[in-house]
Amino acid sequence: MKKKVTPEEVVKYFKDEFKTKIKGAKIVKRKFGSKKKESYYVWMKVDRTVFKDSIEHLIKLQYPHLAVASGNDIGKIIEIIYHFTLNYDQPLEEIILNISVELPKTDPTIDTISDIIPGALITEREKMEMLGITVKGIPDSSRVFLPDDFPEGVYPWRRDKTGPEKYYKNLHEVKK
Amino acid sequence: MSEEAITKTSYHIPVGPIHPALKEPVYFEFELSGEKIIDVNVKLGHVHRGVEWASRKRNPIQVLYLAERICGICSYCHPAAFTLAVENACDIEVPERADYLRVVQAELERICSHILWAGVAAHEIGFDTVLYFTWQIREKALDLTEFLTGNRVTKGIMTIGGIRRDITPDMLPRIKRDMQFFKDNFEKLRHIFLDDKTVKMRSQNAGILTKDDAIKLCAVGPTTRASGVKKDVRTGESYFAYGDLDVKCITPKDLTGTVNGDVYDRIIQRLLEVKQSIELIEQCIDEMPAGDIVSEPKIPKLMNQIKKIEGEGVGRHEAPRGEVIHYVKFDGKSENPYTWKVRAPTYNNILPWIPMLKGEQIADIPIVAASTDPCMSCTNRVAIVKDSKRYELTKEQLHKLSVEKTRRLMK
Amino acid sequence: MRFSMLPSVFVQMFKKPWTNKFPAKYAPSNTTQFLKDVGEGKAEIIPPIPPEKGFRGKIKYDKEKCIGCQLCIKYCPCEAIEFKPKDKKIKIYLSRCCFCSQCNDVCPTNCLTMGEEFLLADADPYSKDLIVE
Fold first, then answer.
1. What is d(CA B345, CA A122) in angstroms, rounded to the nearest whole number?
2. Which of A85, B22, B257, B287 makes the best surface tag, with the fewest CB within 10 Å?
């Protein structure tokens, strides 16, 4: 592990390299316990064209721990958020770095990062089946959680007509 | 096909999806050459219940109880991570006393889980007397849980902005007495696991996960710490009262001086953590400040506050098996979460199985798989073996193989 | 050391078992017959360990105090509570209840409390014992 970084340094490090391709960078600080020690959350939006470069750039700073990638369906856009952890071996200095990428529904493709962080494989496969995005260059694109006979073109986390609405109609009917 | 390819072909053995020597559904496909494992393929999703989707129709108070039912053993961790995420998204301050009380509950759950795991691990290698011994200790831990929370398994103790039950001074003697009981029995358990030849024979140099693999495959919890990676949410981030307490990230190095990353190291790691948890509970009880336990006791008022918020938050908690992370997003129109993402520790500990199991024997599958303490219902949130003609190894057969190996080694 | 568990095993031979033998010392060959006998007073049940103080068991409902505000229905995580619009009271289906006591917390008049009864198994989910009103 390389030397520790501060949240301000992380934001500056990204802004220096990618400039306007980084949007909405903010640092959230929260205090806990009676000694009111701080914990740090960094949020930023990265343009899709430089997403892979930004992860490679991050690895040059420090090899991060990828917790998970989560996804939102917001209207015409699918947002994928990668939750990284930095400084995890430094006592009370851990930074949670949330990098979000916006993908238009007309072309929901993103580059894989599983070649540089092998632990990202399961979470990328999950996003593919749940949100119907395409991950370019993924070594294994089979389903993880959904069964093999689950219909094609239905994505459980979507909120539009490709969502699972027609499959749960009678879920709440209970005899009373 | 050439003649050589026929003589050197390898075998494929499916294990699972129901009970691959574990008590949880997961499907393995092993490629074998004789007794040796060459490649492993893991298939998940057999108990996927769509809880993340179900949360869209529930308000945050209802989601707490939904989160509690993700996993029976981590029935505190998931609500804890969810509340942290909601509190981060809505910027809710928690009273100091509640922070300490939350640590007590978290550590008590860790004792329960690790003791249970120690019993299951002993059972996998055919050492059943230890199984009964550990479950005797766990029974005491569960009784204490019932005393503190009102139920043995589904605790229902967490709430947004605090905790639901206080520890009153008349409860302290009982807690101190039980902590003494855990300490006495912990010494016994440590002696059995660390000095007994049977355990050492089966666990040393089995299922090795190197430090490099642990970092690259993003392993979490005791699995990664046993490989020497100092990743522990409790020490890394200040949340609950962990920032105030004297908590140190421990690795097997503290006891043995070396880190091998094998099954034996993972046993040591969990035992050391039990001791750490007992110490943390005692520390909490001594240092607990007085005050409120909930920031906003009126739930309808709290919901109105959440309804107006448009934002997102991440909550992390160190569960017995590793880091739990929840992501919550509110859209400002309804109090129900817009998105809720659950990441249980086993989700990240699946990929490390592949380097661990490669090169091992079939009889080692139970103990190696059990050594990461997998929890499938946490990870999956449905199973088809296409070719029913294929030979399946049942849990009983695998367990028998494992017991036979122990007997063979003892001769 | 090879037999580290052996002393414990020997000691255990002279100790009482750790568990409570509920409901009978040996599993009866016919459970329904056994329960019938218990009802007629021919056989006896070994009592269960009493629950701790503050245990969340069968819910108790004080009908007089209830003002019909429906807050409990809004916050019940498992939709176990039904509203009776005629007399503005509630009906709780215990077969759906998860015993979280959240309704007790939101109730403005404290008409709901948790009891200590926990032996609630029944073949019919809508039997009289499982509906509180």
1. 13
2. B257
Number of Cβ pairs < 8 A linking chain A and chain C: 4
Contacts of C93 in chain A (CB under 8 A): 176
Residues contacting B48, CB < 8 A, separation 6+: A145, A146, B380, B381, B382
In terms of domains, do B161 and B206 share one? yes
C64 three-state secondary structure: coil
User: Are B101 and B189 in a shared domain?
Assistant: yes
pLDDT band at C93 (very low <50, low <70, confident <90, very high): very high
Second-level CATH architecture of C51-133: 2-Layer Sandwich (3.30)
Number of other residues whose CB lies within 10 A of the CB of residue A4: 14
Asked if residue B297 and residue B395 are part of one domain, the reply reads no
What distance in Å separates the CA atoms of residue C46 and residue B377, rounded to the nearest whole number? 35
Structure tokens at B374: 């997998």
C-alpha pair distances (Å), A32 with each of A38, B108, B238, C131: 7, 20, 6, 43
Are residues C56 and B150, on separate chains, in Cβ contact within 8 Å?
yes
Selection from B373, B383, B325 nearest residue B349 by Cα: B373
Query: Mean pLDDT of all residues in chain B?
Result: 84
Same domain, B177 and B312: yes
Radius of gyration of chain B (CA): 22
One domain, residues B137 and B278? yes
pLDDT tens-digit profile of B46-102?
Answer: 777 788 888 888 899 999 999 988 888 888 999 999 999 999 999 998 999 999 999
Chain C hits for A173, CB-CB cut-off 8 Å, are none
Q: Which domain holds residue B353?
A: 3-47+349-410
- CATH code for position B382: 3.30.390
CB contact under 8 A, B218 and A66: yes
